[in-house]
Amino acid sequence: MNSFMKFVAGLTAALVIAVGAFAGGMFFDRVSRDGLPTPVVGSASLKSAVSEVADIIGEEALEPASETSMTAGAIRGMLESLDDPHANYFDEKHYQYFSEQNSGVFYGIGITISNRENDLAVVSVIADTPAERAGLKADDVIVTIDGETRPKWDVDEAVLRIRGEEGTDVVLGILRGEETELREFIITRARIDVPNTDAEMLEGSIGYIRLYSFNQIAASELAEEIETLANEGARGFILDLRDNPGGLLSSSVDVSSLFIPDGVIVRVEDRSGTIEEHRASGKTVTDAPIVVLINGNSASASEIVGGALQDYARAKLVGEQSFGKGSVQQIEELSFGGAIKLTIAHYLTPKGQIIDKIGLTPDVVVEMEPELQMDKDTDTQLQRAIEVLKAEL
Q1: For a tag site, which of 43, 46, 320, 367 has the least CB within 10 Å?
Q2: What residues are annotated to the active site?
Q3: How many CB atoms lie within 10 A of CB 390?
Q4: Does domain 197-326+336-392 have CATH number 3.90.226.10?
Q5: Distances (CA, A) of 44 to 33, 47, 57, 91
Q6: Distance between CA atoms of residues 298 and 292, nearest Å
Q7: Model pTM greater than 0.85?
């Protein structure tokens, strides 16, 4: 049976190519399409037009394409007509890769990427992965993948091309800094075991937790970290969502619910103007003061959490303006295998803030180069977050 899921597709701004994008496990009942008109092309229905062209290609083309190839091309063409930058088609194999992210088992090279204008940039390189061993660095620009290039790489397509079976190679053509000649990196894919959280005690009474993505188990992992740090004496918490590209809509609601006891977490508005409210679950784990760190790569689900905590005055936001990805995508499985992704709605914070193309404005703005996060002595955003939290304790 066909099914679909909703998620706030992170950035499409930074996807863990440890294996792929965040999609995956939250399924919803199919929305009724009764009463919708049949699409037409000129005076012909879409179905008859596609069938006619396929017949002509099959009968007349010098080198006719396979039915599989024509089907994929037709689907991609329809999605391109939407003027939706997040719309994409996944064949059966790539859809399997796309869905694996939520299992926590990844096969790839170990980087996160995002679109920066027309460039496809490496946001971060995960330690002890094939990418790090090969010498990739943050801010490298990916120009070619296995010898192919694009005027602008779609992040989802890049993810699917870079991911693959364990033990196979991918070849990346990289521009670094001001260099004009491509560097070629041949990287062997491997299983990437990436924890979704990092946690530690800072300065005796501050619990620091970094959350990397909003997968199915993000809330439960975060709750465990909070309880552990509280038992160690934490009286307040810093939730670091910098460079977190987002993930599942349901996960963002569950994470917000750890701190907000009641009320609307996010409102999702579809094309008809219908608003669906997602409320706190009531499963809070702490009422201690919270500071949330965000930057320009904090997107979608990260912005839902940050926006809800800010609207309810439950946390102070510290850092830089967030990415501004306030749309909701739907993954719908196809009866013949694979799936399509398309934008179905945009979301609003509890107080009605529109995030898309705007982002969240921190309560305390601290501009900082991303690489300074690597060392706590140079991480001025973290240092400021500690100061803000101490004032709340």
Answers
A1: 43
A2: 300, 311, 325
A3: 15
A4: yes
A5: 21, 8, 18, 28
A6: 11
A7: no
Token pair, residue 140, equals 């490298």
Q: Where are the domains of the chain?
A: 105-192, 197-326+336-392
Cα 124 from Cα 79, distance rounded (Å): 30
Phi-psi region of 70 (alpha: psi -120 to 50; beta: other; left: phi over 0): alpha
Question: Which amino acid type is present at position 298?
Answer: S
pLDDT by 10s per residue, the chain, length 393: 344 455 554 433 333 343 333 332 222 323 334 444 445 555 568 888 888 988 898 899 998 888 888 888 888 889 889 988 888 888 887 777 666 655 556 789 999 888 887 899 998 888 889 999 999 998 999 999 999 998 889 887 898 899 888 999 999 999 999 999 999 999 999 998 777 899 999 998 999 999 998 988 999 999 999 999 999 999 999 999 998 988 889 999 999 999 999 999 999 999 999 999 999 999 999 999 999 999 998 999 999 999 999 999 999 999 999 999 999 888 899 998 889 989 999 999 999 999 999 999 999 999 998 878 878 899 999 999 999 999 999
Cβ atoms of residues 246 and 301 within 8 Å: yes
Contact 281, 257 (CB under 8 A): yes
Do the beta carbons of residue 260 and residue 219 sit within 8 Å? no
For domain 105-192, the CATH class is: mainly beta
User: What span, in angstroms and rounded, lies between the C-alpha atoms of 333 and 36?
Assistant: 20
Helix axes 67-80, 46-60, angle to 10 degrees: 140
DSSP per-residue codes, 347-360? EE-TT--B-TTT-P
Q: Taking the mean position of all CA atoms in its chain, how far away is CA 373? A: 20
Burial environment of residue 55 by CB neighbours within 10 A (0 to 12, 13 to 18, 19 or more): exposed
Beta strands at 40-41 and 88-90: parallel, antiparallel or unpaired: unpaired
Closest CA to 175 of 121, 130, 248, 125: 121
Check: CB of residue 226 under 8 Å from CB of residue 285.
yes
Rounded to whole angstroms, the Cα distance separating 8 from 355 reads 12
Token digits for 336? 């013949």
Residues 6+ apart with CB under 8 A from 335: 2
Cα separation, 381 vs 369, in Å, equals 10
Which has the closest alpha carbon to 304: 251, 261, 342? 251
